[in-house]
Amino acid sequence: MQAPAEDLAEQLRDRGLRATTTRVAVLRAVGELSGHPDTDTIASRVRQTLGTISTQAVYDGLHAMTRVGLLRRIEPAGSPARYETRVGDNHHHVVCRSCGAAQDVDCVVGAAPCLTPSDEAGFLIDEAEVTFWGLCPECRTASASGSAAAR
């Protein structure tokens, strides 16, 4: 269940952001939508709540909330940017090559950043962003059904 609007507004204020109606609606939409929604999906949900709103206002809200750590932005290859409310735990993602569905996967091994590169090149590494690729259960089933029908 999503937090009440007052709680969402408080989260925004706690991070130094104004709790505008648009920002509250965007934060609520990201929390309510499953599968790491993209900006168009988030904007559609916000429009269901608020009516007319520009896509730029949604982009601005997403950018501000990502900047202060309320949201996390992921960009799987070949996919538009997606957003999630699960932040601060260095988890990873699994993405379907067929339909693009994305799900969270807990840290691979050990504490953050979960992986140790062979050469850190002088960087202090604090996060590893890993994307696993494959077929989701629905696409695997559809693929198996299509293969059987082709025989």
The proportion of residues in beta strands is 5-15%
Uncertain runs with pLDDT below 50, 5 residues or more?
Answer: none
**Strand arrangement, largest sheet?**
4-3-5
The value of Rg in angstroms is 18 Å
Give the SSE string: HHHHEEEEEH
In total, the number of strands is 5
Distance between the termini: 46 Å
Can you give the helix content as a percent range? 40-55%
Give a short account of the largest sheet: 3 strands, mixed
What is the count of helical runs? Answer: 5
Oligomeric nature of the chains: single chain
pLDDT averaged residue by residue: 87
List the helices and strands and how they pair.
Layout: H1 5-14, H2 21-32, H3 39-50, H4 55-67, E1 72-74, E2 82-84, E3 92-96, E4 102-105, E5 131-134, H5 137-150
Parallel strand pairs: 3-5
Antiparallel strand pairs: 1-2, 3-4
Helix pairs in contact: 1-2, 2-3, 2-4, 3-4
